[in-house]
Amino acid sequence: MGALKGRDLLSLADLTAEELQDILLLATQLKAGTLKPKCEKILGLLFYKASTRTRVSFSAAMYQLGGQVLDLNPNVTQVGRGEPLSDTARVLDRYLDILAVRTFDQHDLEAFASYSKIPIINALTDLEHPCQVLADLQTMQESFGSLQGLTLTYLGDGNNMAHSLMLGCALTGVNVRVASPPEYRPLDVVVQKAQAIASGKTEVIVTTDPIAAVKNAQVIYTDVWASMGQEALAETRVPIFQPYQVSEQLLSDADQAAIVLHCLPAHRGEEITDAVLEGSQSRVWDQAENRMHAQKALLASLLGVA
Fold first, then answer.
1. What is the pTM of this model?
2. How confident is the model over 242-258, as pLDDT tens digits?
3. 53, 237, 283, 291: which one is catalytic?
4. CA proximity to 61, closest of 103, 100, 102, 25
């Protein structure tokens, strides 16, 4: 894990397949309690977007490692009053050991990284959500024992979750299918990047057909139909996305042993039915817990204490 010390994680594509597997192995060991790294470092959380799981899981992970956490709410710091990003980044670089940024524009995240020597973590942007996918892959590995050869189907908006899932699956030997309405497909540049990583060894497929996409898949994944900042569009999106709802009927076309994942928060009755979310195939709560374990592994790796 020494190769990750001091590095940023802005995208899952920043990792090699081996590095990603190492993080997942460490997350498993940390969850089992077989490895207990300790550090006396300071993590900063600079979140421009609301958060429950990301904020709490990062905080709990850092405290369990023996470190400290500073919540840098933009509303009570100078970044909320227009201080240039470059100035904020260079100052925080002098105070903190590592910084997780949750923001809108991926370019802002990259700017933080360019002005800082400390590791910068993408805690969510409109382009990617890599930390969530670390927990997703850990949950899949727990459920099936191995990731190799699995098929994950993502249904819904081709958003940051779809992007990071495609990259994470391509790196770990998982086939991935994204089913979205035509005007909401994932960005071509990310699809092409995932396909290049997969190198023909696994499938990276984008389709508009939800039924074909779930056929014999082992993992069914969905997300809200309107992400943060798109709430005003939520009502107009419902009829467009209705065919992509993860329902008991749609789930019946998947593999009999299929599991269901959702990054939360869930809008029950929209992208997923209550029966599926609370059903026997749901692994959503294990998935949410694994945010803490996966991010603890990531923090330990980037800080060089694992």
1. 0.96
2. 999 999 999 999 999 99
3. 291
4. 100
